[in-house]
Amino acid sequence: MLGEFISTRRELLISRTNAKVSARPSPAPSAGKLDQRVPLFLTQLYETLRLDTTAAPFSPSAIGAGAARHGRELLEEGCSVSRAVHDYADVCQAITELAVEQGATILPEEFHTLNRCLDTAIAEAVTEYGRLKEEASSRHDLQHRAQIAHELRNSVQTALLSLTWTPSSSRLRS
Fold it and tell me: What is the pTM of this model?
């Protein structure tokens, strides 16, 4: 039921989610990226709902990979990590609001699957964002320390040269 609801109202859900994301005051993601993220998640959610009723459920790692890319892109765009959480919340709100408006039924198992997919997506996006932010911070710290070491080495070398310099060593020999 929820899978078919998502499939038949896909464009409307994408439009509503994009409107919610764009309405937030934090830096808006680039339009191209946003147009890719929401449809990807909806496709993965649909596949999860469809395959949850079979013997071979949809792999959570598929949702995780897309969400990790989402977290990476948010960092590249200069957005905060909270944007990832809000983006997935906007998808959930768009789905549930439209379902209520249209009197669609969402079974408890389907809502559980929706929440599981959202939890996985949020966790992976936040984890990847944090990992990359930490890597960038470590690189920056290492570069800063290298610069300080270089400056210190130059100062020490200058001090050593001035200590070994004597007036007699500076005269030209004839």
Answer: 0.72
